[in-house]
Design brief:
alpha/beta, 11-stranded mixed β-sheet, 4-stranded mixed β-sheet, 38% helix
Length: 509
């Protein structure tokens, strides 16, 4: 479709100029966003509580409005779900994105306003294509269609006033009519929530299409690709879709998956583009293919603040704006958005790799977590699940750590645990089963990934010898009460070190 490609490039010219504007004038663009947000929300319940009509500057805002977590706004969210209006943002909020929860809740329900959909999430998707076509002027991406693999939670009713589901499902449900001509499969298939059925139907609906681009979480897409190859009997994906040229990914670190994708899509003309989007907003796009960094998108109706991680646990931390950040510190992200979140701590940490333009890398979480496959298991989830398994089996744990097993030709993705027991469980298989079930009970994203073992196999648990963790601390000169073993990690460094020490001790027995 050369005519369509030319039309898209012409439309993108104006948008690319706007992106250049915030690249060159980040402070001014963010100040304009800030004024728009507090002006728009001045007469909401939240805005009246914190006297938004009296706020004249960012400094006033920071003095007036405390930092927030989901637990702090949960009462407002519950009222919005019940149909109340004008609470955090003007008007009614109909949609809520379901994501993994907090210490006290299995799931969070993030408000998704019409402005957040149009000015943030959908704009992010369009900007991905604008930036890609600018980087690759000879692209034929619009000669075919895009396949976006949606989430695992279908659209559900809280009541007659509001609905919830995965963010991806909400986006598919609300996608503009014209976009339906550029994507596959049709919405009723994309929104299926039973993954075994969904894989089959997506495969049947797309293998005869001219798919030129994919989008989604790497782990889910690998599951789909392997299913398609098994279904079709093809050796690699280019035998199914010869014009495939782009995979837009996000949600987890792509590097552990890169070699698998390159093996399954063996083409030097295949491109991979990183994005940073979440239920709370769309934040970053890899705008330069020669670097892994992402450009912070500063005009999506989000006002950013940043807490240096050395300040994070202080009662009154220093909180910076885009004007004051550097390329040395790690920062916890704080958001005020057109979705009605105010000074909201999302839980991710980033480090800037350049200023003007503000490019960054995701460095982790404000807490230890496991998110290699989109499961977002936080330390509180792990502690609750281990406590249940111990209580039911009579076990006691002295130390533990966990890491992912990445999908390969011979292994399915799963979590691997090293546990040093003070008192071993009566039956280790029962312990593992209880750990697995309890994690599903407290974390809806882990539960979705474990559905019928499609993405994640059951956890693998090693009982390591007593003294293993002591020797690790000793080897790393970390003996002492202030030093802690990282409980959850997205790389295997700590777990492999523990297994090596265990094997060493085993040999010396």
């Amino acid at each position: 479709m050369p005519v369509l490609t030319s039309l898209v490039k012409w439309i993108n010219i104006k948008r690319l100029h706007q992106i250049d504007l915030f690249r060159n004038y980040p402070n001014e663009v963010q100040e304009e966003i800030f004024i728009r947000l507090i002006t728009k929300a001045a007469y909401t319940s939240w805005g009246q509580k914190y006297r938004y009509d009296k706020i004249q500057s960012v400094e006033d805002f920071q003095k007036s409005v405390p930092l927030q977590t989901y637990d702090d706004i949960k009462t407002y969210v519950n009222r919005l779900r019940a149909g109340e209006k004008n609470l955090l943002w003007p008007g009614e909020v109909k949609w809520f994105a379901k994501s993994s929860g907090t210490t006290s809740d299995k799931s969070k329900f993030i408000p998704v306003t019409r402005e957040a959909l149009e000015q943030c999430h959908f704009r992010g998707g369009k900007d991905v294509l604008a930036i890609y076509t600018d980087n690759y002027p000879n692209t034929r991406i619009f000669s075919g269609k895009g396949l976006t693999l949606g989430g695992s939670h279908q659209i559900n009713n809280f009541n007659n006033n509001s609905l919830y589901g995965d963010l991806s499902a909400i986006l598919i449900q609300n996608i503009p009519f014209w976009a339906e001509f550029l994507r596959v499969p049709e919405s009723k298939i994309a929104l299926l929530d039973q993954w075994d059925i969904k894989l089959k139907e997506v495969t049947r609906a797309t293998i005869k299409e001219n798919v030129t681009n994919l989008a989604g979480v790497p782990s889910w897409n690998l599951v789909l690709i392997n299913y398609i190859l098994e279904y079709t009997g093809k050796k690699h994906l280019l035998e199914v879709w010869p014009n495939l040229e782009l995979f837009v990914h996000g949600g987890v670190n792509f590097e552990p998956y890169r070699k698998q994708f390159e093996k399954l899509i063996p083409s030097p003309d295949m491109h991979y583009m990183d994005t940073y989007n979440a239920s709370e907003g769309f934040f970053g796009i890899q705008d330069d293919p020669s670097h892994d960094d992402m450009l912070l998108m500063l005009d999506y109706g989000i006002f950013y603040e940043f807490i240096p991680m050395q300040e994070f646990n202080k009662t009154h931390p220093d909180v910076l704006t885009i004007r004051d950040v550097n390329t040395t510190d790690n920062y916890a992200l704080v958001l005020s958005t057109n979705g009605g979140l105010w000074r909201y701590i999302i839980g991710d940490t980033i480090r800037f790799t350049s200023l003007r333009p503000h490019r960054f890398r995701i460095t982790g979480r404000t807490r230890h977590f496991l998110n290699a496959f989109g499961e977002e298991v936080i330390i509180e989830n792990a502690e609750k699940a281990l406590a249940t398994a111990c209580r039911e089996t009579g076990a006691q744990i002295s130390e533990y750590t966990a890491a992912p097993v990445y999908m390969s030709d011979t292994e399915q993705a799963r979590h691997e645990w090293c546990i040093e027991f003070e008192t071993e469980p009566a039956d280790i298989d029962t312990f593992v089963s209880l750990l697995d079930k309890s994690l599903m009970d407290v974390n809806s994203d882990y539960e979705a990934k474990r559905y019928k073992d499609i993405t994640l196999a059951p956890p693998l648990v090693h009982k390591v010898l007593k003294g293993t963790f002591y020797n690790w601390f000793n080897d790393h000169k970390k003996l002492g009460g202030q030093n802690k073993m990282p409980r959850l990690s997205n790389d295997r460094k700590y777990l492999e070190e523990i297994l090596q020490i265990h094997n060493r001790l085993q040999k010396n027995k």
